[in-house]
Amino acid sequence: MDLPVEEWTSHILQKWSLLPKSIQVTISTAETLNDIFLHSSSLLQPEDEIFLKRLSGDYLVGKDPDAPLFYREEGNKKFQKKDYLEATVLYSKGVSHSRPHTEDISLCYANRSAALFHLGQYETCLKDINRAQMHGYPERLQPKMLLRKAECLVTLGRLPEASQAISDLESNFAAKPTLAASQLQILQRTLCHLKIKVQEKENLTEAFPAALTKAFEDVDLRQENEQISSASSSVSLCTDPLKGRYLVATKDILPGELLVKERAFVSVLNPGEMPPRHHSLESKWDTRVTTGDLYCHRCLKHTLATVPCDGCSYAKYCSQECMQQAWDLYHSVECSQGALLLTLGVFCHIALRSTLLARFEDAGKVMKLCGESSNRDICLPESKNLVQMLSYDLGGESEKKGKTVEAPIPGCDINGKYKNNYNAVFHLLPHTENHSPEHKFLCALSVSALCRQLEAASLQVFTAAPKSCRLKAVEAPALCPELSVWGVAMLRHMLQLQCNAQAITTIQQTGSKEKLITDSRQVRLATGLFPVISLLNHSCSPNTSVSFISTSATIRASQQIRKGQEILHCYGPHESRMGVAERHQKLKSQYFFDCNCSPCEREKQSSQKGPGREAFCCHACGALLQGGDVLSCGTASCTESVSRDHLVSRLQNLQQQVGMARKLLRNGKLERAIQLLLRGQHDAESFLSSEHSMVGEIEDHLARAYAALGDWEKSAAHLQKSLRVVEACHGPSSIEMGHELFKLAQIFFNG
Questions:
Q1: Residue 408 exposed, middle or buried by CB count within 10 Å (0-12, 13-18, 19+)
Q2: 326: number of CA atoms within 13 Å, CB side?
Q3: Which residues sit opposite 509 in a β-bridge?
Q4: Can you tell which superkingdom this protein's organism belongs to (predicted)?
Q5: pTM of the model
Q6: Alpha carbon distance 545, 36 (integer Å)
Q7: What percent of the chain stands above pLDDT 70?
C-alpha cells in the first residue's frame, strides 16, 4: 500500500541483483540524492516501463460506459432488500463511471437520492435531486422524483419551498394526467402527517452530526505561537545535535490542553482493499465498499453522496467545490495517472502531490493553472525561488554548507518562523544514509518511471520551458535537467515518508446496526505530512494524544507537562501494547534509532522481570506463580507447584470455550452463551491473574450478552470488571480504555 505493488518491487529488486557490482557500488556510495536519482534513472529501460504499464493496466480507474447500468441494477437489488446504505454506495459507483450530462449519471443520482431519503439524509437527497435534474433527468420520470423532493422539504420543515414544490407538481400533473391521482393522494396524506411534526420540532437527523463536527473543527488554539504556526504559545522549538529539532513546554501544561492544531500540508486517501488486479469476466466491476467510496479524496470528510471527477472513476469528492479545488491544485496532473499511482503506492503518490503543491508556494495564494480546466495539457507557473531551492544539493548536506537556509533551525523562514509550508516539508530528514541501497534504487526507479509517464502524456508540469524537455523516442532513456530536479525532489519525499508520514485515522463502528451496544475500532483513513507534528520526538509512553477531523490533526496533553519538559508523541510502538524487545526492533527498522525513553530505560534497568499481567496464579492462595517449566507459588507460606505445560493446556481449553461462546452470541443464543462464559469465568479465576487479558475478554462478552437481554445492571457490572483489566494492560489514557468507556456509556444510556 505505502510502497509499490509486490510484482514491481520484485522486478526492481531482481534488476538490482543482476547489476554489475561496480554499478551497485556507485549507487550505494553516492553522497547525494541527485547522484542516486541520476545513476538509477539511467538504468530504467523500455521493457521496465512496459512491465509497469501492464501492471497498472489491471486497475480499472477509467470510465467504463457499461458500468453505470451494472451498478444501478446491483443497487436496485440492495434497495429492494431495504439495504439502503449498500444501495447508496453502488449507485455512487455508477455515478463515478458515468460521463457528465448523460442519462446514465442522471439516473444514478436519482436512484441514490431515493436511497438517501430512506436513510434520513434529506439535505443530501435534495442535492442529488438537483444533480439529477442538472444532468438531464428524463422528463417522463420527473414527477416521481419531484414527489420525493417535496417530501424532503416537508420533513425538513421548509414549508414555503415545499408548498411551491407541491404547486409545481400539481401543475405538472394537470398538464400530464398520467400517474397524477395515485401520486397526489400519497403526497397529500404525507403532507398532512408531516406538517404537524415539523411545526413542533425541526428534524435533526443530519443537523446534529454536522454541527458536532463543526464544533470540533472550530476549536482553536487559545494563543497561537509566534515562532511555530499551528502550535500554541505553550510550546517552543529547540534544536540539539543528537535529538535534532524538538518541542518543549514554555509553562506548566494541564491534561487536555490543546498544543497543536495543524492541517496536513498534503494527504492522500488510503485506497483500502483494492479489487484483485486480475479480473475474471464475472467480477469485472467491484461491488465492495472501500474507503474511497465513503470519504472525500481531498478533504477526507465522510460522505454518502460522492461527486466524481469528470475524467476518471477513482477520484471522488464531497462536493463540486472540493472537486474543483483538487483539480486546480493537483488532480489535473494525477487524473490520467490514477492506475499508475495505485501501482506505485501511497508514498509515491504523496511525493508527486507534494511537489505539485510546491508550485504555489511563492504565489502566496493558489493560482489557477494556465489553460481551460478541461485542457489536459497543463503548464507550470514559473516559481524561480522554488526551483532554486530544489536545484541545490538535495542529499541533505546543503543546510550544513549554509547554501539554502540562513535561519538557525532548518525549515524556518528568514525570520526564524517555522510554518506549515513546503519549505518545512522539504527540510524533513530523508535519512538517505540509513535506507538500504535496494530501497533507494526501488524508489528512484519508481519516481523516474512516473516522471516519464507524465512527460509522455504531455503533462508539462515540471518545467517552465516544456519545449526543451521532450524525450526523443530514438534516443536512450534520459531525463532533461529541469525534470530531473523535480524527480530528485520526489525521491527525497519518498524517503522522508518512512519516518515522517502520519497515519490519519478515524473511528469506525463495528457490528450490525441493530445492536444496542456497538464496538468501535481505529482505522487508517489516509496518509499525510504534518510539518509541525513531525517535530515531536517519540516516547513509548507519550505525554500527548493525537486525534483527527478531516485533514486536521490536534495534539493534546494527555497528562501534566512541567515547564521545560519535552513534548512527546508515540510513533506506534507503545509500552502498553508491545514488549521492549519488539518496540526496539520496530523503531530501529522503521525510524533508525534506539529508543532511550523512560519506559525503555526502566525495563532495561530492571534486573529481574516479574511474572507480568499474563501470569498464572496459585489456585490455593491466589498469589502469582513464578519459575520455568515448573511454577511455584510466590508466598513463603504456600508450597503449591504445577507444570507450566498443564496450565498452558488449561488456557488453550478456556480459549476454545470462549470462542464457542462468542459464536453462540453471534447466532443470538444468549442463554447458552452466558452459561458457557460463567463456567469459563469460574475456571479462569482458579488459575489466571486478575489482570490477564482472557479474564477481561470473558467479562466483556458477558457484558454484551446481558446487554442484549436488556439486563443493564449486570451488563454494567461485568463491563466495569473488563475496564479494570483494560486499564491495567493499556493504561488509563489509552484508546482501548476509551473504547470500553464508550461502551459503558451506551449501557448507562440504554439502562
A1: exposed
A2: 26
A3: 520
A4: Eukaryota
A5: 0.81
A6: 38
A7: 79
- The DSSP secondary-structure symbol of 264 reads -
Task: Please report which helix (H) or strand (E) contains residue 249, including its range.
Answer: strand 244-249
Please write the tens of the pLDDT for every residue from 13-34.
999 999 999 999 999 999 899 9
201 DSSP 8-state letter: -
**Residue 69: pLDDT band with limits 50, 70, 90:** very high
CA-nearest of 528, 618, 494, 88 to 267 is 528
Contact partners, residue 228, CB within 8 Å, separation at least 6? 235, 236, 237, 247, 417, 418, 532, 535
CB within 8 Å of 674: residues ≥ 6 apart: 702, 705, 706
Q: How many Å apart are CA 260 and CA 594, to the nearest integer?
A: 26
pLDDT of 203: 39
> 101: phi > 0 → left, psi -120 to 50 → alpha, else beta; which?
left
Stretch 99-107: mean pLDDT? 94
How far is it, in rounded angstroms, from Cα 627 to Cα 640?
A: 12
Q: Are 450 and 461 in contact (CB under 8 A)?
A: no
3-state secondary structure of 313: coil
Q: How far apart are CA 487 and CA 505, in angstroms?
A: 30
**Which parts of 690-741 are beta strand (E)?**
none
Q: Would strands 266-269 and 519-529 be described as parallel, antiparallel, or unpaired?
A: antiparallel
The phi and psi torsions of 265 (rounded to 5 degrees) equal -65, -40
**Exposure pattern of 270-301 as b/e (b: 16+ CB <10 Å)?**
bbbebbebeeeeeeebbeebbbbbbbbbbbbb
Summarised one tens digit per residue, pLDDT across range 454-474 is: 887 754 444 433 343 333 333
Can you read off the three cell numbers belonging to residue 284?
469485472
